[in-house]
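LAB NOTEBOOK - FOLDING QUEUE
OPERATOR: T.R.
BATCH SIZE: 2
PURPOSE: Compare the predicted structure-token outputs for two unrelated chains run back to back under identical settings.
PRIORITY: normal
REVIEWER: second-year student, initials M.K.

ITEM 1
FIELD SEQUENCE / FIELD STRUCTURE:
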Amino acid sequence: MDETTNVIFAGVGGQGVLLIAELLALAAAAAGHDVKQTEVHGVSQRGGAVESHVRYGPKVWSPLVTPGQAHAVVGLEKLEALRFAHYVRPDGVIIVNDYEIPPASVGAAVAKYPHHAIEFLCSKGLNVVALPATKWAEDLGNVRVANMILLGVLSTYLDIPSEVWERTLETRIPDRILALNRQAFQLGASITHRASVKA
């Protein structure tokens, strides 16, 4: 593929946004692509908004994805998916964790949180894959692997071979948690290409 592939990851601090962005960058490089990744945008401590852009292809000049050009937007929670939805291209996909983390700025006014963000995105004719990744991660025994479930979903939309993903996980994830992260990744990879997945 001659085209540059553009992906945006968005969530809040503590959800592992930067880890899965790094894993994509490493996997793309291992597959022979030129890769550019942004530094963190936003506040990376727990609770602050975090985004990371990853671009790969034959030759990539800039790490920044422009609005309307993302092949995939991965939202680790609903508000962040909504905030970055305008980056997706018409034939792209928005992968959303059906999970809510009200930002500090909302405070007690929880009613201001866009609880119907997924329905709103679908109503705009966007290709949305929504799944309860946090709940499934809890079922696996560790809520922290929700990010890996979402990365597994994303992997099936990209031109990176499964064996490269496997090697990348083995290289980057510590041995003590590799099996769990691999299980989460494979779970995500097994349920993709559905318009919406409910618990």
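ITEM 2
FIELD SEQUENCE / FIELD STRUCTURE:
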Amino acid sequence: MKKGKMRVMAVIVLSAMVLCCACGKKDAAGGGTIEGELSDIMADIYAGVNVDAETKEAMQGYVTDTLTADNEQALLGVSGVSYTEGVYSVPMISSIAYQCVLLRVSPDDVENVKTMLNENADVNKWVCVSAETVLVENVGDVVLFIMCDKDTAYAVSESFQALGK
């Protein structure tokens, strides 16, 4: 009788551990999904970002536009990135280095796209300023690529990740 209870308990504990590991891997790999148009998702990121009032106000004035074959090299640092939808957000005129790009990609291409963006990010592409931080993350099939100062980058990332929960 005691061995039977021990086996049942072992199976329960093992099942719980497998479930926890599976959930942890999903979250660590950027699991979850974000539905909707990328321009709306960008607006939601900015609405939920936790930055100082001046930065938040400035973000409301950033231009959000469609990524095209004509501007992808300048924004992504590389051409030939495989995506089905892309938008970017940049300040019109600013003395700060900032860009935020969202890409919707095939789930099979997420890691490859993230690697391409990380390897080709040019933090010195602006005149007289450089980005302090590059982050490339995903929630499901949506990839966030941001270059700017550290605090803003992590705040935008946190807002982005919260949309996938």
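REVIEWER COMMENT (ITEM 2): The first strand starts at residue 63 and ends at 66.
FOLLOW-UP: none requested
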